[in-house]
């Protein structure tokens, strides 16, 4: 996700190319301008589909990069020179936006040994209050993150036909929305990358998760407005001022 907030351009977990290992992109590839003029990059964890070396090398080396403890060495090997490791509860201020690392429930799992680091989410506080979950499962402190959230960016699937522990599926993401109670929830982490050869066999896994999330939110979090953005699509934060109807 590229967030434009209070004059800042903040890119989260950039994967900007057409492939990651055995995964292939479905849908439009981000334009070259996505990685230009960035004020910060947020890295939630070091799995290949969140910390892609080739994509990170497209980021200007002096761009501030905020990442979990243990991530600095890998990110510096990508040519990035302004890396700050943030444990949950720690924060930095960039421009008018305070960015804090928050807890995430997501293990090393598929990460190569050279990329072992914690996982975090991020809370952004400026004229809007935004939660970017990264990859996480439900955790006990989720409801206490912020009772005035404007926007929650919640993963609703992954890159394969199944999900392992440490992830949110559409139902659990809706439970997260109910716990967080943001004004708007945008489902992320779906419909972009899939293993070679599986897309034609399991096409619904590329398209159904956000609609399933919206349906579950109607039951579990009816006060939360769901806005579905297709991969590559933009939506104005100004819509938060228009209410949730």
Overview of the structural elements:
The protein has one domain (2-233): Ribonuclease Z/Hydroxyacylglutathione hydrolase-like (Metallo-beta-lactamase, Chain A). The chain has 245 residues and is an alpha/beta fold. It has helices at residues 53-56, 72-77, 170-180, 204-220; strands at residues 2-5, 8-12, 19-20, 23-25, 40-42, 65-67, 83-85, 91-94, 97-103, 120-125, 129-132, 151-155, 184-188, 193-195, 225-226. The protein contains 4 helices and 15 strands. The model has no long low-confidence stretch (mean pLDDT 93).
Give the CATH class: Alpha Beta
Q: List low-pLDDT spans.
A: none
Number of helices: 4
CATH architecture descriptor text: 4-Layer Sandwich
| Helix and strand element order | EEEEEHEHEEEEEEHEEHE
Task: Determine the CATH topology.
Answer: Metallo-beta-lactamase, Chain A
Shape: globular
Q: Structural class, from secondary structure content?
A: alpha/beta
- Percent helix: 10-25%
Please tell me how large the radius of gyration is. Answer: 17 Å
Mean pLDDT: 93
Strand order in the sheet with the most strands = 8-9-10-11-12-13-15
How many domains? The number is 1
The biggest beta sheet, please? 7 strands, mixed
End-to-end distance: 24 Å
DSSP strand tally: 15
Topology:
Blueprint: E1 2-5, E2 8-12, E3 19-20, E4 23-25, E5 40-42, H1 53-56, E6 65-67, H2 72-77, E7 83-85, E8 91-94, E9 97-103, E10 120-125, E11 129-132, E12 151-155, H3 170-180, E13 184-188, E14 193-195, H4 204-220, E15 225-226
Parallel strand pairs: 2-5, 5-6, 6-7, 11-12, 12-13, 13-15
Antiparallel strand pairs: 1-2, 3-4, 4-14, 8-9, 9-10, 10-11
Helix pairs in contact: 3-4
């Amino acid at each position: 996700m590229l967030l434009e907030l209070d004059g800042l351009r903040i890119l989260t977990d950039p994967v900007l190319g057409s492939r990651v290992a055995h995964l292939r992109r479905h849908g439009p590839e981000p334009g070259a301008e996505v990685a230009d003029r960035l004020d910060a990059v947020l890295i939630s964890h070091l799995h290949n589909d969140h910390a892609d070396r080739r994509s990170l090398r497209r980021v200007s080396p002096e761009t501030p990069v905020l990442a979990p403890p243990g991530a600095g060495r890998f990110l510096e090997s990508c040519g990035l020179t302004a890396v700050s490791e943030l444990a949950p509860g720690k924060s930095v201020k960039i421009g008018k936006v305070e960015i804090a690392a928050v807890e995430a429930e997501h293990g090393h799992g598929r990460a190569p040994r050279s990329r072992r680091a914690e996982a975090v989410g991020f809370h952004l506080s400026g004229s809007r209050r935004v939660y970017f979950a990264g990859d996480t499962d439900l955790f006990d402190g989720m409801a206490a993150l912020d009772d005035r959230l404007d926007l929650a960016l919640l993963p609703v699937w992954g890159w394969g036909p199944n999900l392992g522990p440490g992830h949110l599926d559409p139902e659990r993401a809706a439970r997260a929305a109910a716990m967080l109670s943001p004004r708007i929830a945008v489902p992320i982490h779906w419909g972009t990358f899939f293993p070679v050869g599986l897309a034609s066999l399991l096409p619904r896994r590329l398209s159904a998760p956000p609609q399933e999330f919206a349906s579950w939110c109607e039951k579990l979090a009816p006060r939360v407005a769901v806005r579905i953005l297709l991969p590559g699509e933009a939506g104005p934060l100004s819509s938060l001022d228009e209410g949730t109807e």
